[in-house]
Amino acid sequence: MSRLLINEHPLMVIPSLAVKVGVNESIFLQQIHYWLTTSSHVFEENKWIYNSYIEWQKQFPFWSISTIRRTINSLEKQGYVVSANWNRSKMDKTKWYRIDYEKLEGLEYHRLSLFDLPSAQSEQSKESGWTKDEISLNKPIPEITTETTTEKIHILFSEVIDYLNQQTHSSYKSNSKKTKQLIQARWREGFVLDDFKKVIDLKTSEWLRDPHWSKYLRPETLFGPKFESYVNQKANKKSYKEEDFNLDD
What we know:
Strand content: 5-15%
InterPro entries: Phg_2220_C
Distance between the termini: 47 Å
CATH topology of the largest domain: Arc Repressor Mutant, subunit A
Number of helices: 11
Helix content: 40-55%
Shape: elongated
Order of helices and strands: EHHEEEHHEEHHEHHHHH
Number of domains: 2
Radius of gyration: 21 Å
Largest sheet: 3 strands, antiparallel
Number of strands: 7
CATH architecture of the largest domain: Orthogonal Bundle
Organism: Rossellomorea pakistanensis
CATH class of the largest domain: Mainly Alpha
Protein name: Phage protein (TIGR02220 family)
């Protein structure tokens, strides 16, 4: 059997939680929760843990530090993770983290059983504490096509496209296959609804009144490979050249 399969402690993805907060965010939340259960650091009646970005990367070697930073910022922005500085020296900028469990409970998510563990692994799964209601990173993440999650991901499609149409006075369809693929690809990279709205707002303010660039206020351009650079763009007008984009209709 491959050495890459269940021979090390797995990280977990709860699909219904990932739909709500993002794939990367759901993995990171699970890891924070794991460490909080063993933490002895209590401040303001809450348990806290601390780590530097470099230390986090040792636990998530498949992520860059920028991805880890973006994931943490996303969770803080959504309100599921609270950060503070409880270091004795204020010169020490190591961040402390806790989970806002009350806000998390509001999601009312449940674990989905997406596959059956082989019988030979049943005792191993009991000893490790993992159940077949959870899915490990050692198994490919399933497509978001189950009956339980289809409705939720369609809500994301609708909200993004409705907002785009509202801001740009367009009439794009949320059920377009290409548009759905673009939105889902960005969602799987860890971006959330607020990121889509931010890109739409930024590009609308830049391009809507420009007869030439306004035609690129479309899903193919906004939600394509340059999406991350748009998310991180400062809110000021810039000049662009046609060669910066894939202009094929």
